[in-house]
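Worked example 4.2. Below are the chains of a multi-component assembly; read each line carefully before continuing.
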Amino acid sequence: MSSLQPVRGTHDLLPEAMRRHRKVVDSSREVAALYGFHEMATPIFEFTEVFKRTLGDTSDIVTKEMYTFAMGSGKGSAKDEENATITLRPENTAGVARAFISGGLAQQVPLKVFYAGPMFRHERPQKGRQRQFHQIGVELIGVPQPLADVEVIACGAQILEVLGLKDAVTLELNTLGDPDSRAAYREALVAYFSAHVDALSEDSRERLTRNPLRILDSKDAGDRELVAGAPLFADYLNSESRDFFAEVLQGLDNLGIAYTLNPRLVRGLDYYCHTAFEFTTDRLGAQSAVMAGGRYDGLIKTMGGPQTPGVGWASGVERLAMLLEADIAAPRPIAVVPVGEAAQATALKVAQGLRHAGFVVELGYSGNLKKRLQRANKMNARAALLFGDEELAADSTTLRDLDSGEQELVPLNSLAERLSRLS
RNA sequence: GUGGCUGUAGCUCAGUUGGUUAGAGCGCCUGGUUGUGGUCCAGGAGGUCGUGGGUUCAAAUCCCAUCAGCCACCCCA
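Applying the procedure described above to all two chains together yields the following structure tokens:
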């Protein structure tokens, strides 16, 4: 291994990739703001307990994907804190919930937040799956009504639409019911699959004890045959759960948001209930989910806070960025080009003045006129401003339109106005 | 974590049954213009053949290990 390679599963965001990344994040932030979500940030690491308690001890994330470190300085401090372990956040809902409790935000419900930032999971990398990746997400905390689910989903749908991905994704929906319904269904499933345990795949036998709902989502052919005859969740939903889901669907219908019901859509994380949804795509191989979330009414109480309902989603920035059609163009600068020593000072001052006027200006650092124009061309400059003896004497600059090749002498006092007329 | 495929120049890739100084296109640099970019022409630089071992007179080529990427599973954004 070369120490000059990035750590496995991490990657640099070079300027071109960063522009795509920024487009995803900036567009999402703007749309989320339209729905009244306020951006906040939590630390990228938390006490390990924060994730263990909320994600469930049996989830894959907790059992094998967390980056956990000893927090102590190694100097044998006796303080409890020094003996604790900390974990790089594998997702951000737990962090927001923790902040909600420790920051006394319970006074401010409904709380609507947007976040964006890096997450860390120790998984085997693939395309669209890194060990450090980035998520955007929203959380709407404190609203028990299904209207909250509708707005959260609508916000996500609008973000995807703004990014031009409406046709690339499908909204899949399911309900996990309230805790009573879920428990009853789980019991029925375990009973059913236990009776057919010999026919189950090895993975699914494991799921039977850890997370039986997951069997419904199995890709194993034999499992699928069994699943076809398995009890249906719909038969175990109590009326409250059924009504709740119906209202969510009604809200989406009302907004004209298309969805597909997927009774096999389940959640890996324990804290979800009622609405579960995923925006999926068929363009990213096995990494089909680009935005996923649901309702988590039990999460905050589980963490030790007051009973507070919540609903939200998270979305993978790299996955969305990969789906963007075209490259994002960098802004086209104006190139300021001094010809000869005498023009240096003037060129620098004009460049600075234009920047204060809001123009993107590049000042070549060295080279003759030809060299500098070559560089201006390479950076896709819209125009070049030439400063030589003639121009200095006339208190003007030669404006060269680099698209048309046409030149004109422009007095400095009307330069900004002239440049603003360039297309 | 499991199984499979791949790794040659900055990028995309050739490289014959193991056989001299490992090639192409694009990109990069210089010149064709001491105040004019792109196109064109001429020339040039750039490679520990992922890394480390092994087999052989000889390894980019065969073998082993390792690292990384990709694909599928697991799981997930």
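Take a moment to check your reading of the output against the notes. The longest helix of chain A spans residues 15-34. Chain A has a mean pLDDT of 90.
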